[in-house]
Amino acid sequence: MGERTGTMSYRITQKQNVWSGRVDPSGDKNTLYWHQVVQLVSLDDLPAAQGEQIAFLGYKSDEGVRRNKGRVGAKDGPDEIRKSMAKFAVHFDSESIELVDVGNITTDGEDLESSQSELAEAINSLLQKGYRSILLGGGHEIAYGHYTGIRKYVGDQVLGIINLDAHFDLRAYPDGPHSGSPFRQVLDDCLKSGDEFHYLPIGISQSGNQKVLFEVHHQAGQQYIDERAIDSNHLEPVFEQIQLFADQLDHIYLTLDLDVISAAHAPGVSAPAAFGLEPVIVRQLIRKVFDTGKVISFDIAELNPKYDDGRTAKLAASFIYDVMMSCYKHHSIRN
Q1: HSE (CB half, 13 Å, CA atoms) of 332?
Q2: Whole-angstrom Cα distance, residue 70 to residue 54?
Q3: Is the C-alpha dihedral spanning 266, 76, 111, 122 positive or negative?
Q4: What is the tens place of the pLDDT at every residue in 48-92?
């Protein structure tokens, strides 16, 4: 795939090792798989979007996870997600909706800060060119660069974050940013700039977050949804809270940290959850957020192939499949 070789510079490599799979001998368009329709293009050479075009961008980093004393290995997540996506059957009009893969941004050694800045520039560039972006992680440090790029693009419009996550990720970062600090960084930036901070984490685990993090979140004037309050048979209260949050915004940045899901279904993550949410619930939550019509960009974080047996990568890819179908049916990601 595309690897970073310098600031905003990419090259496409190893296509056959990532986007590959079976090919139906009939050659009929109704027999296509994603690997047959995705286009690999350098971000530097990417033209302006024509019609409905989805751009995949990988963020190969787990330096933030290392700094946060988590299980490293998430840097290999983006390509594992691609391998699972490659095998999906095409159920959209591939002539009117195109899939483009612009490669990966890679954290070089311990230089997390530079890769976050480059990620911000990349997502701003994709949005400026009219692409609907789906980012593949990588540690949840992806969130700060992703948000910063969206913020640059939307300017003064009201931007909010919905984070499907077991953790607030509001930890302090005296020794530099990490995978547990992205939304604290966003909060601090908002306090400095005078921008409004809108943040709704869903799936919070009480045992997985220090008391101080609940206090930080409360002091920021934000609400959250505890995992214990999410009843699979009675999701309407959660849907109502999502809608109320969306009503005050122009755009939503939606991020999914896979550790919000029970380790029974998602073992390959940086910080596995003993309980967590069922995948079908996460799927319904994602669909509800997209139904608001305000999602501007989406990412998946914390896939750690080192501890996976394939289940988590396939699950991550399947969530992206749902996102893709939301784009196709509802055009919910918008510029």
Answers
A1: 24
A2: 31
A3: negative
A4: 998 889 999 999 999 999 999 999 999 999 999 999 999 999 998
**How far is 170 from 212, CA to CA, in rounded Å?**
9
List pLDDT tens digits, range 231-278. Answer: 988 999 999 999 999 999 999 999 999 999 999 999 999 999 889 999
DSSP 8-class letter at 46: P
Instruction: Check: CB of residue 142 under 8 Å from CB of residue 148.
Output: no
Tens of pLDDT along 134-183? 999 999 999 999 999 999 999 999 999 999 999 999 999 999 999 999 99
Tokens at 259, concatenated: 């550790």
All structural domains of the chain with their residue ranges: 3-329
Candidates 335, 333, 320, 326; CA nearest to 38 is 320
Give the span between the Cα atoms of 201 and 180, in whole angstroms: 13
Q: How far apart are CA 102 and CA 46, in angstroms?
A: 8
Domain 3-329 top-level CATH class: alpha beta
Please state the φ and ψ torsions of residue 7, each to the nearest 5 degrees.
-60, 120
pTM: 0.93
In total, the chain counts a number of residues equal to 335
Alpha-carbon separation of residue 25 from 31, 36, 50, 207, 243 (angstroms)? 9, 13, 30, 53, 46
* pLDDT exceeds 90 at position 11: no
